[in-house]
Amino acid sequence: MLSALTIAQAHDKLAGREVSSNELVRACIERIEKIDGKINAVVHRNFERALVEANKIDDDKKFDNPLTGIPYLAKDVYCEEGVPTTACSNILREKNYVPPFDSTTTKRLKTAGAISIAKTNTDEFTMGCSTESSCYGVTRNPWDTSRVAGGSSGGSAAGVCAGEGIFALGTDTGGSIRQPAGFCGIAGLRTTYGRTSRFGVMSMASSLDTIGPLCRTVEDLAIVLQAIAGKDPLDATTADMPVPDYRADLKKGMKGIKIGIPKEYLIKGMSNEVEASVKAAAEAFGKLGATLADISLPHTKYALAAYYVLCPCEVSSNMARYDGIRYGHTAGKYKNLLDYYEQVRSTGFGPEVKRRIMIGTYALSAGYYDAYYRQAQKVRTLIGGDFDKAFRSVDVILAPVSPTPAFTIGAHADDPVALYLEDIFMDGAVMAGIPALSVPCGFSGEGLPIGLQLMSARWQESTILRAAHAYEQATEWHKKLPVLN
Fold first, then answer.
1. What's the chain's average pLDDT?
2. Rounded to whole angstroms, how far apart are CA atoms 280 and 463?
3. Given this model, what pLDDT does residue 331 score?
4. Residues 6+ apart with CB under 8 A from 260
5. pLDDT tens digits, residue range 84-94?
6. pLDDT number for residue 33
7. 3-state DSSP call for residue 196?
8. Which of 56, 96, 210, 438 is deepest in the core (most CB within 10 A)?
9. Sign of CA dihedral 218, 211, 75, 356
10. Which one-letter DSSP state was computed for residue 409?
């Protein structure tokens, strides 16, 4: 199946004239048309435009860049000129918002020759851990369609897993790339905060949001990161840091790498299968030449609570722009301006967005700012200090992605706090602003993927990519594909 190729494999076939870009794009389109009704990963199709771009590339016959002619999926928060982008929210969907510009990331991919073919499903404005809060309905896991694909980049993860695109773009605020990648058995990378540009990507929490790729292999992650990383004059939060040759660094292997295993990440209540798979992965790293060491991240236990104070505060601020005046959802009959705002936001936003706006507004109010927001920022500093200290003695930190494999759709419908707890192993990296990735490390007895999380110090994406690649080459987990016809 052409649409199940990796970027590296597809590039070799394009460069060798074994296939054309048009054939690759058509293979992905046919796959979407055939199976997306079962998983609901795609919410908007750019097929005609994609085929036009593919034909131009085929006519040019230059495949110098490994991304040239490669079809990909973009999460429905990435602005692309002329392509509807709604953040899977009725507040933008009703008027079919079409951005007049490209995000920096999609623009850089376009420059490299990659072809955007579709927008993928997400939790509304990326608020969720399961892609259940989308106005387009839930995305289903290709391994078991009664289960979630994870969130908020669930559509991107499910799409790559099911062969609807060669790779996909996602966003990670509290684990929204790593968790769906883990649930779907693919690789996903959260970059250092400031490594990649967020310009043109709809914000949820501006000091926490990062963007990154979801791919079938770690090598593919390195290829995409090479194209999108770097300083952007349109995003003041991007750092003027050198961008390494990520793909070349993969060849260095595990020699000299020291891996830390934090005791705080092996907790009571975690699935026995997840714990066993993560411990087996640690042993595999030891056999590959890595040195293993026990470490402690004492403030990690506060990361989830701090995240769910800070994130809603920033949500409250960022969602204020969606007022129905300049674009998006509008109200019919209204008494005055205040009534207009109330109607637009009450009917345009879903329950999870409203919940976070209310929590954030409360925590930022005059009487509670010091008790909640300021304290959470102090905890954030302590968590970052724990990681800084740990990385003085180890190169990589190894942990689970999630406490369990993918849960059933609706399992946490009546308990949002239980849903938030799905982020428990991922929010520490968010608070510290460090890079982290997910790579498959096993399967449960029910045939569901289990994800392994690797973290490294700021700007050290090469280190975790190198470690994950070595592990991937020594195992077969990433080669397994779901049966979805």
1. 95
2. 20
3. 85
4. 293, 294, 295, 390, 393, 394, 396, 397, 398
5. 999 999 999 98
6. 98
7. strand
8. 438
9. positive
10. T
The two tokens of residue 121 are 């499903």
**CATH 3.90.1300.10 applies to domain 2-295+397-409+429-479:** yes
Strand partners, 142: none
Q: Which amino acid is at 357?
A: I
Helical residues (DSSP H) of 61-196, grouped into ranges: 90-93, 104-112, 154-161, 178-184
**470 token code pair:** 């070595």
> In sequence order, what E strands does 52-207 have?
71-75, 115-120, 140-141, 144-148, 167-172, 187-190
Token representation of residue 476: 């077969």
CB 192 within 8 A of CB 95: no
Is 107 among the residues known to form the active site?
A: no
Closest to 46 in 3D by CA, of 164, 215, 182, 194: 164
pLDDT surpassing 90 at residue 408: yes
Those residues with Cβ within 8 angstroms of residue 102's Cβ, 6 or more apart along the chain or in another chain: 79, 80, 81, 110, 200
The predicted structure's pLDDT at residue 61: 84
What Å distances lie between residue 397 and 290, 383, 385, 454, CA to CA?
Answer: 12, 14, 15, 6
The SS3 of residue 455 is strand
Contacts for 384 with CB less than 8 Å, ≥ 6 apart: 431, 432, 433
Neighbours of 35 (CB within 10 A): 16
The angle subtended at Cα 209 by Cα 207 and Cα 213, nearest 5°, is 150
- Let me know if 3 is a catalytic residue: no
Q: In the numeric block, which tokens belong to residue 48?
A: 């005609």
The DSSP secondary-structure symbol of 152 reads: S
Of these residues, 103, 133, 152, 402, which one is catalytic?
152
Q: Are 386 and 300 in contact (CB under 8 A)?
A: yes
Q: What does pTM read for this prediction?
A: 0.96
Strand partners, 187: 215
Model confidence at 327, in pLDDT bands (50, 70, 90)?
confident
Structure tokens at 269: 């209540």
The total of other beta-carbon atoms located within 10 Å of residue 485's CB is 5
Residue type, 449: P
Q: How far apart are the first and last CA of the chain?
A: 12
**152 is known as an active-site residue:** yes
- Cis amide prior to 152 (ω within 30 degrees): yes
Buried/exposed code over 94-109 (b: 16+ C-beta within 10 A; e: otherwise): beebebeebbbbbbbb
Would you list the domain boundaries of the chain? 2-295+397-409+429-479
Query: At 404, phi and psi to the nearest 5?
Result: -140, 165
- What's the Cα-to-Cα distance from 93 to each of 99, 316, 342, 343, rounded to whole Å? 12, 20, 18, 16
Amino acid letter at 3? S
State how far the Cα of 133 lies from the Cα of 409, in Å rounded to an integer.
11
- DSSP state, residue 230: S
The token duo for 29 is 């389109």
Q: Given the residues 21, 89, 176, 277, select the one marked as catalytic.
A: 176
